[in-house]
Design brief:
The protein is an all-alpha fold. It has a single domain, classed as MFS general substrate transporter like domains (Growth Hormone, Chain: A), CATH 1.20.1250. Helices cover about 75% and strands about 0% of the residues. It contains 11 helices and no strands. Helix 1 runs antiparallel to helix 6 and helix 4 runs antiparallel to helix 8. The protein is globular. The protein starts with a helix and ends in an 8-residue tail after the last helix.
Length: about 270
């Protein structure tokens, strides 16, 4: 449900934003955005607060105990990650899917140079992956019995689809390819998260998941920066194609180097 609602917002927001910019103008678009923030911020006032956790009353509760515990927890998570081939493989395939392969920063340039459109078309480019991801979220029940092979296939679908997007100048085909990329991204994200939690002990799950969240936050931003730099050196379409070829090659390399990733499964024993 969370994935579906997130992708629905990602689908509707850019499309409406593009229409507002192309129609009433940028100022109206920002005004609608500001009103939306105000409405949903006010809605938070009606959310009941969670009760605070019981304070630590142990005799050794020194002022800096929390800091020491935080560093110890991070160190424990890093040590477990370093020695667990499945977790390392999941983190590396996530990096392969994100670094060099985030074309969102180039959508305005591509809309103008490759497809000859304006703000409305930019909104469609941003919305198309969300449409594919929404379809993926609505049909993702099968992932409960999937595993590493499905994850590798989903990342390859992301990379191959975006390679085709960078090569084509046909807008309908480009939108279909972006939707397929969004589908692959949603499935791969779902499986990465599920396999990570499935393969991590309860006592370390929060710490290991936090490391994955850091990477999941940093990698897309880094990917957009790298693709933008490549576009400065070559062109927007060449940067997209180059990045996605790197994604496909890196994904295949990670899959070959980590058998534990290929063998991983969410299916119950005997299924």
């Amino acid at each position: 449900m969370t994935a579906a609602s997130t992708q629905f917002a990602a689908l509707l927001g850019p499309a409406v934003g593009g229409l507002l910019i192309a129609g009433p103008g940028l100022a109206v678009c920002y005004a609608v955005d500001a009103v939306g923030f105000l409405v949903f911020s006010a809605a938070l006032l009606f959310v009941r607060p969670l009760p605070p956790a019981a304070p630590d009353t142990a005799p050794d509760a020194a002022p800096n105990k929390g800091v020491r515990q935080a560093f110890t927890s991070v160190a424990d998570g890093l040590c477990y990650t370093r020695g667990h081939r499945l977790v390392v493989g999941l983190l590396l395939i996530d990096a392969a899917a994100m670094v060099f392969t985030m074309p969102q920063a180039l959508y305005p340039v591509l809309a103008d140079e490759q497809f000859g459109g304006g703000p409305g078309l930019v909104g469609l480019l941003y919305a198309a992956p969300a449409l594919g991801a929404l379809v993926g979220a609505a049909t993702s029940g099968w992932t409960a019995r999937a595993g590493g092979h499905a994850l590798i296939g989903a990342v390859l679908l992301w990379g191959v689809s975006l390679t085709g997007f960078g090569l084509t100048s046909l807008l309908p085909l480009a939108l279909v390819l972006l939707a397929l990329a969004g589908l692959g991204d949603l499935i791969s994200e779902t499986l990465r998260s599920a396999l990570l939690q499935h393969g991590t002990p309860d006592g370390l799950r929060g710490r290991v998941s936090s490391l994955w969240m850091v990477q999941a936050t940093v990698s897309p931003a880094l990917g957009n920066a790298v693709v933008g730099f490549l576009a400065e050196l070559t062109s927007a379409s060449a940067a997209v194609v180059t990045g996605e070829v790197v994604c496909v090659v890196a994904t295949l390399a990670v899959a070959a180097a980590f058998p534990a990733l290929r063998r991983a499964t969410l299916a119950a024993p005997g299924e």
